[in-house]
Write a structure and sequence with these properties.
The complex is a heterodimer of chains A (281) and B (295). Chain A is mainly α. Chain A is 72% helix and 0% strand. The longest helix of chain B has 32 residues. The chains are: A mainly alpha (281), B mainly alpha (295).
Chain lengths: 281, 295
């Protein structure tokens, strides 16, 4: 090994460690606050390196706060939205990838162009629609739209399906199989990796979604964690929010995301390669 | 095209088609109509013509302030975040021991839900007890009151955005791995040093990814919401108010549905215009390999 590459190594480690410490320290601070006692919290005297280890914070939050309810709500909402986004996008993408029909090209262009419209444009009218349906304060406005196939997901799966040889379908067609059979028995099983990626995207979007619940849910018993944890900080009467418990709840919000990323990154990378580097969030 | 395929096509795409009509097209048309009314959700809407737009563009200083703040935030956080992520990706591309650990570590902050990172940064940015000012004190610097100081609140939000810079790094890293090694070998035979091959090979080859990061970055920055809502509520003195929080406030706190709709359309036009400008400019600086122009 030459001198310059040894020097290069030292510089690289030096840089990576410094930036690594900068990026990791907020996580450590989060844990430190979560482990602080109530007395420390009232004084806001948090330290970077934990001095106290109030593990009871992790249990008392379930009894004194609504954490269990928030968690349950988050799980229900994410499970259904994942199901909805994966199923609907899978079915729709088969139509766009494999069936030629009058208007299919135009409709695909329409689908792609809907990706350019910011959600804020449809936010207010959608609220009015869901309010008319008397769905405010229910999970429906958060879950039901996911069953109508997101354009980005459809596009991603379609790109993937386009890469599957058409001879497979043609052989099945000669054997007398129709579109439902080809979709269910041939194409859909081959798209599992990309469907997994979409499940992960859908999880990360819905688990942390804040604006949707903020608009539709007022009842604390129906709030998902992302909204519930924010509610914990809005205590009235000049009181100090229970920051240690807020950070416990934030950890509960964060850890599933980290785990899903660690176990699912393989699928996400694959989706990125196949989808032509389109979006990690 | 086979007979009967049309029926199957429409059956397969029906979930999207129904959603498009009911949740996208319908609401878009409704939103256009609403933006010409003064609807407050409780009384029947009055048609007011262009009044909302005229009011918004000529007589609403708070709207312009929120536009200014949004652009300030975008104009600094995007180039800063992109240069830092390029720098990070360069080092994460090294073949050294433990690099996988660093890759995971650098990406993790970007998976933290924005609600959690917002609540955390309230503490990191606290005036005396906050970790950032404590760290600055070690170097003898008295940090500002960040979130309480009108001049420092936007830089504070920008610092917050930099924590999640790893999201864009992943794509840059993938792009770097796609650059043929022979190009570097050829360059080093020609006597190019590391910095030269970075600016003459790595950077040009990465411009498609940089372009993608730039476009998504612009769209994301103009839609900033939760950070402002949770960390600053737009304060102090509206110096961190941004377009989407302002839209939200008008719709769901003041129940000015018509006015909020007109803000949404102005936002749409801003996003469209900026995206188009970037797309147009891409011919000048985005490098595509020959034959791959349609990628």
């Amino acid at each position: 090994m030459t001198n310059s590459s040894a020097r290069d190594k030292v510089i690289s480690y030096f840089f990576l460690i410094i930036v690594g410490v900068l990026l990791a320290s907020p996580f450590l601070y989060m844990v430190s606050i979560a482990l602080a006692s109530d007395a420390t919290t009232v004084k806001s005297a948090f330290t970077f390196v934990p001095r106290e280890f109030e593990w009871t914070n992790f249990t008392s939050i379930f009894t004194h706060n609504n954490l269990g309810v928030y968690l349950k709500n988050s799980v229900i909402i994410t499970v259904f939205t994942i199901m909805g986004s994966v199923l609907s996008a899978s079915v729709v993408s088969y139509g766009f990838a494999r069936i030629k029909a009058r208007g299919s090209r135009v409709l695909f262009i329409v689908l792609l162009s809907t990706m350019m419209i910011p959600g804020e444009v449809t936010m207010v009218p959608q609220f009015i629609i869901f309010r008319h349906l008397e769905w405010v304060n229910t999970f429906y406005p958060l879950i039901v739209p996911s069953f109508f196939a997101g354009a980005f997901n459809v596009f991603l799966i379609r790109q993937f399906v386009m890469g599957i040889p058409k001879s497979l379908d043609e052989a099945a067609m000669i054997d007398g199989m129709g579109h439902p059979g080809i979709y269910l028995k041939i194409i859909m099983p081959l798209t599992y990796p990309i469907l997994a990626a979409i499940a992960i995207f859908s999880f990360s979007w819905n688990w942390g979604n804040f604006m949707g619940p903020l608009i539709y849910i007022n009842d604390p018993n129906k709030m998902p964690l992302a909204l519930g944890v924010q509610l914990m900080t809005t205590v009235g009467g000049g009181q100090m929010p229970p920051w240690n418990l807020v950070m416990v709840a934030s950890l509960f919000l964060t850890i599933p995301m980290v785990l899903v990323y660690l176990f699912g990154q393989r699928f996400v990378y694959e989706a990125n390669i196949n989808g032509g580097s389109s979006g990690i969030k | 095209m086979r007979r009967g395929d049309g029926k199957w096509f429409y059956l397969f795409i029906s979930p999207w088609l129904i959603g498009f009509v009911g949740l996208t097209l319908g609401p878009i048309l409704f939103s256009i109509y609403m933006s010409f009314t003064d609807w407050d959700l409780f009384q029947s809407p009055n048609f007011v013509g262009l009044a909302n737009y005229i009011n918004l563009l000529t007589d609403d200083p708070l709207f312009w302030k929120s536009v200014g703040n949004t652009f300030f935030y975008a104009l600094i956080s995007i180039p800063l975040g992109m240069s830092i992520s390029l720098w990070i990706a360069y080092y994460l591309n090294k073949k050294i021991k433990g690099i996988t650990f660093f890759r995971i570590l650098f990406y993790l902050p970007s998976v933290v839900p924005v609600v959690a990172s917002s609540l955390l940064f309230v503490h990191l940015l606290a005036p005396t007890e906050g970790l950032i000012n404590k760290a600055l004190r070690i170097f003898g610097i008295q940090g500002p009151a960040w979130l309480l100081d009108p001049t420092w609140v936007k830089p504070a939000l920008i610092i917050m955005s930099l924590w999640g810079v790893g999201g864009g790094v992943v794509l840059l890293l993938a792009g770097m791995k796609g650059i043929p090694q022979e190009m570097y070998e050829a360059a080093s035979i020609d006597g190019a040093r590391n910095t030269q091959s970075f600016f003459h090979i790595t950077f040009p080859m990465l411009t498609p990814v940089i372009f993608f990061n730039l476009v998504t970055g612009i769209i994301g920055a103009l839609q900033t919401f939760a950070q402002v809502f949770i960390v600053t509520s737009g304060g102090p003195d509206n110096s961190s108010q941004m377009v989407v929080p302002y839209l939200f406030q008008n719709a769901f706190q003041f129940y000015k549905m018509g006015y909020a709709s007109s803000i949404a359309w102005v936002l749409f036009i801003m996003i469209m215009a900026l995206t188009l400008i970037v797309f147009r400019s891409s011919a000048l600086w985005v490098h595509y390999e020959e034959g791959k122009a349609n990628d």
